[in-house]
Amino acid sequence: xxxxxxxxxxxxxxxxxxxxxxxxxxxxxxxxxxxxxxxxxxxxxxxxxxxxxxxxxxxxxxxxx
Length: 65
Fold this sequence. Notes:
It is built from two helices and no strands. It is an all-alpha fold. Helix 1 (3-28) packs antiparallel against helix 2 (33-61).
């Protein structure tokens, strides 16, 4: 498996986890504000990692000039 494929696979896994955290934060918004905030914070941190991975995958796919 190439490095690009591994990055894509990891990106997919993180994206799935991000969606779960956002949904969890939304579901807790009315009942437990603190837990909702924690889940939202974790989702934001994960989104930052996803953006970095997206940059790496893009870098890998572009040919050198």
